[in-house]
Write a structure and sequence with these properties.
single chain, mainly alpha, two-stranded antiparallel sheet, 6% strand
């Protein structure tokens, strides 16, 4: 990444330095000597190339196995005829356009040298040709070799690789091949969740390996074994890590040694609130816990079903209280539940939303509007809204006039074929994001207009940091050093030494505002 940033920064000028950077990079990435698969050193381009081909050919060679397809006779058929038609039908130009513009324009091209940027820039000209080429494949044509050709690039995993296990091969395919693969992939994405069982987390959008880890924790906790703390570490771990981060920020190494002029707590605020845009680990942890709660409330997975069966068999998730002996994961989720669940709004479709305890009117759960009344009824909207009318009599307790007036203003139309849709109200799109959850759950400070203007992408971070420290009087000036370390000494500003200059005590205000040198600079603006 650092190399990429360096190249991006200097390539604009097409300078000698830029070309030297490229030459140095190519020199470092060249392999002149390496061990073959037998452990013998080989040198020279031809010998290294032969050894590489032999090693990776042997590594990726398919094994001969006896196939028995009888097992497929006992597997339920889940791919319908309609699914097959959807998978194999020729794509439209619009579908291809969506795929083309989803490709990273700066990704490395294949053997033909045409990157995603070319396809996107020339799309009005080449659209019909690309459409015809892709459609020919879906109509049964064999892909020509130039279409499927790739460049095999070997990337070192370490500096100065000794053998081929220190190298990772990647395949750079033509963008035309990427387009075809992405079309097929996007079509498969809607079918894979039905084909792949719920306990498999990988390669399925919306599933996460962390859910399987959390499920394992719940099972371990169920059998009274010591719970795993990797997902939910104690606060002391956060404090220890932040101590090392603070030392590194002020000293450049983990041993520290330099005075911390600003605490990590004060550093960990956004620029606009007077901080340096770091984030407290505990706030990040809360944000990821909020994501777990969001998934628990809005998705259907093995982990979610297990938690509901374990903790919510007779109660709504928003009313459950934590009990001793329950898992740390569940306890952490309940701690942030009230703040997070209040930001989940349900758009009613099939009507399985809980009438009393889910927020479907945008006014919060309706039970909270019932004064001095205990609500313990769990009933879905479809059980109350029948034949396009509200049946108030099935509700216990009977709703107040305030609630009935609120509901009458709410337009509802049940559709048995469409699931109720959850919206995350902290984002415009309604999609949950870690950053919005972090902003919701973190401690906030008032807007600091001056601080917000100090930081800019075109100003080096170090310069902004110095200005920020100066404004907050957190510089090692004489007055601060004397006060912090109880040292008595004569202070004078070295910027004011000269004929006719009146020296003053070295303070941030004197250095940057009232001092002779500062006044001279400010007079130029």
């Amino acid at each position: 990444m650092c190399d990429l940033l360096d190249v991006t920064f200097y390539k604009v000028t097409n300078s000698t330095f830029f070309h030297n950077v490229i030459k140095d990079k190519n020199k470092r990435l060249s392999i002149h000597k390496i061990k073959d698969q037998d452990g013998n050193w080989v040198e020279g381009t031809t010998q290294v190339a032969t050894a590489a081909v032999n090693y990776f050919s042997n590594l990726f060679k398919a094994e001969d196995i006896d196939e028995n397809n009888d097992i497929f006779n006992v597997i339920d058929r889940v791919v319908t005829r309609e699914d097959n038609i959807s998978l194999t039908s020729p794509p439209s130009i619009q579908e291809l356009k969506d795929v083309v513009f989803s490709i990273d324009p700066d990704s490395a091209p294949g053997p033909d040298g045409l990157s995603g940027k070319f396809y996107q820039s020339a799309w009005p000209i080449i659209a019909s040709d690309v459409h015809a080429a892709i459609n020919s494949f879906f109509q049964g044509a064999t892909l020509p070799k130039f279409f499927t050709h790739t460049c095999i690039v070997m990337l070192p995993k370490v500096n100065f690789p000794q053998d081929f296990s220190d190298i990772r091969p990647i395949s750079l395919c033509n963008t035309s091949s990427k387009i075809l693969a992405k079309v097929i992939n996007s079509r498969f994405s809607g079918i894979l969740p039905r084909i792949i069982s719920q306990n498999q987390s990988g390669f399925v959008k919306g599933r996460a390996i962390t859910e399987n880890i959390l499920l394992a924790q719940e099972i371990v906790n169920n059998i009274n074994k010591p719970n795993v703390g990797a997902i939910h570490p104690p606060k002391g771990i956060f404090d220890l890590i932040e101590t090392y981060l603070t030392k590194f920020f002020w000293s450049g190494n983990e041993e520290g040694g330099k005075y911390h002029w600003i605490s990590w707590d004060n550093l960990s605020y956004p620029y606009r609130e007077g901080g340096s845009n770091f984030r407290k680990l505990e706030d990040i942890y809360k944000a990821f816990t909020a994501k777990q709660w969001w998934k628990f409330r809005t998705s259907n997975s093995l982990w979610v079903n297990f938690l509901k069966a374990k903790y919510c068999i007779n109660d709504h998730p928003t009313t459950i209280q934590w009990k001793p002996g329950q898992s740390h994961s569940w306890k952490a989720m309940l701690k942030i539940r009230s703040e997070v669940d209040s930001k989940i709004w349900w758009r009613v479709r099939e009507g399985n939303v809980d009438f009393w305890f889910d927020n479907w009117t945008k006014q919060g759960p309706l039970w909270s509007l019932m004064e001095d009344v205990i609500v313990d009824q769990h009933i879905s909207i479809r059980e109350v809204y029948r034949q396009s009318q509200w049946d108030w009599n099935v509700l216990h307790p009977y709703p107040s006039e305030q609630i009935k007036d609120l509901i009458r203003k709410y337009t509802i139309s049940l559709n048995n074929n469409t699931k109720d849709v959850p919206f995350w109200t902290e984002t415009e799109s309604g999609t949950f994001s870690i950053s919005s959850a972090w902003n919701l759950l973190r401690q906030k400070r008032l807007f600091a207009p001056i601080d917000a203007k100090l930081w800019h992408k075109d100003v080096p971070y170090k310069m902004s940091c110095v200005a920020w420290r100066a404004i907050h009087c957190r510089m090692p000036t004489d007055d601060k050093v004397a006060k912090k370390f109880k040292i008595n000494f004569v202070s004078k500003c070295f910027c004011c030494i000269g004929a006719g200059m009146k020296t003053g005590m070295e303070t941030a205000e004197h250095l940057f505002c009232s001092g002779h040198f500062a006044q001279l600079l400010w007079s130029s603006f």
